[in-house]
Amino acid sequence: MAVTSPSSTTLVDPVHGGLRQHRAGLLSLAMASCLAVTTEMLPVGLLPAIGQSFRITDSVTGLLVSLYAVMVASLAVPLTVATARFARKPLLLATVLCYAISNVIVALAPTFAVLAAGRAIGGTTHALFFSLCIGYVPRLVTGAQVGRALAIATGGATAGFIVGVPLATSLGTALGWRVSFTGLAALSLLTLALVAKLLPPVSNEAPVRPVQNHSGRAALTAVVASNSLTYLGQFTLYTFVSVLFLAAGARPAFVGPLLLLCGVCGLAGLAYAAKNLDRRPRRTMGVGLGLSIVAILVLGAGFPLLVPVIVAAAIWNGVFGGVPSIYQACAVRTHAVAPELAGAWVNASANFGIAGGAAIGAALLPLTGLSGLPWVAAALIGAGLAVSMLARRAFPTRPV
């Protein structure tokens, strides 16, 4: 992976402060990241209903997740580089507005092709949004607080799984999937207003001077590689989690509450990461991915019994709640590139994993059935764990 960094000496932004001073701004970023993930992941919860509307199979409908993620994976770094000279806050607000546009198109889509086009707009937006969101945080707080601040700001992504996707899924199940996307469009406009009011503007100069050496670049490469493998494994299985619950005997009306259960458990994983990743990032990563693998293996062994599937899914997704924040903090702390570009590489590699995982799951589904997916998912996450444990510079015992 080729990375670059600014050649000029950069200054700490004047707005730099503590968590308490910028808590409102961080929470507005959390709401925006909640919106972003809900928009991205909602087809997972409504996959059967969307497929039935357009008379297509679950495996084809699942590719809506892949399309979105492919846009992010391919455009995150180029868009971040291309917009580096633009003011941060107006650019961030523009991405939130584009989420509203994407969701309106999806809600009104008369054909599957139009729906896919709306998702492509959302994917392009997402490619830039999380790069900006991750890069914004080091401009607001001191270096020692970056981990906790990232856990707040991008922890909204976990809230998307906890609140956004389950509630929107339940709404879609009761009133139709188009109503869910209409609601997301309205939420996008509300989020736009809150971010505009609460988030302070910052300079687009990097808050620290990146370290331009082989060690930093190698560390960032390791973070990106581990992140890619972990997300490949996660979404090989998670893309079809609603289908998994239904196959294990859950009623359609219970899919939303089950996703809510999984998301609420993610609060525990996020809280553990927020508490420890500023102190013990390596141990935090090992615990998170290790427990996730064990839970997925239990799920595979227990399928198609409903109770083991529910318990294992709750633990698996609960543990995963803190994993994105760990990768984000470790990428920024490599100092190999400016914060937005570090965020772009994390964003791109995560969505490479989301797209690839959805594609792997879709390809395996007709061959192995649902019962084969957990074993492949566990193996891929295991590879991600192995990379993180071997890369001591990228995932240090203590932050540097």
Automatic annotation (TrEMBL):
<keyword id="KW-1133">Transmembrane helix</keyword>
<feature type="transmembrane region" description="Helical">
    <location>
        <begin position="344"/>
        <end position="367"/>
    </location>
</feature>
<feature type="transmembrane region" description="Helical">
    <location>
        <begin position="286"/>
        <end position="307"/>
    </location>
</feature>
<protein>
    <submittedName>
        <fullName>MFS transporter</fullName>
    </submittedName>
</protein>
<dbReference type="InterPro" id="IPR011701">
    <property type="entry name" value="MFS"/>
</dbReference>
<keyword id="KW-0812">Transmembrane</keyword>
<dbReference type="InterPro" id="IPR020846">
    <property type="entry name" value="MFS_dom"/>
</dbReference>
<dbReference type="InterPro" id="IPR050189">
    <property type="entry name" value="MFS_Efflux_Transporters"/>
</dbReference>
<dbReference type="Pfam" id="PF07690">
    <property type="entry name" value="MFS_1"/>
</dbReference>
<feature type="transmembrane region" description="Helical">
    <location>
        <begin position="62"/>
        <end position="84"/>
    </location>
</feature>
<feature type="transmembrane region" description="Helical">
    <location>
        <begin position="175"/>
        <end position="199"/>
    </location>
</feature>
<feature type="transmembrane region" description="Helical">
    <location>
        <begin position="26"/>
        <end position="50"/>
    </location>
</feature>
<feature type="transmembrane region" description="Helical">
    <location>
        <begin position="120"/>
        <end position="137"/>
    </location>
</feature>
<keyword id="KW-1003">Cell membrane</keyword>
<keyword id="KW-0472">Membrane</keyword>
<dbReference type="InterPro" id="IPR036259">
    <property type="entry name" value="MFS_trans_sf"/>
</dbReference>
<feature type="transmembrane region" description="Helical">
    <location>
        <begin position="254"/>
        <end position="274"/>
    </location>
</feature>
<feature type="transmembrane region" description="Helical">
    <location>
        <begin position="373"/>
        <end position="391"/>
    </location>
</feature>
<feature type="domain" description="Major facilitator superfamily (MFS) profile">
    <location>
        <begin position="25"/>
        <end position="396"/>
    </location>
</feature>
<feature type="transmembrane region" description="Helical">
    <location>
        <begin position="91"/>
        <end position="114"/>
    </location>
</feature>
<feature type="transmembrane region" description="Helical">
    <location>
        <begin position="149"/>
        <end position="169"/>
    </location>
</feature>
<feature type="transmembrane region" description="Helical">
    <location>
        <begin position="313"/>
        <end position="332"/>
    </location>
</feature>
<feature type="transmembrane region" description="Helical">
    <location>
        <begin position="220"/>
        <end position="248"/>
    </location>
</feature>
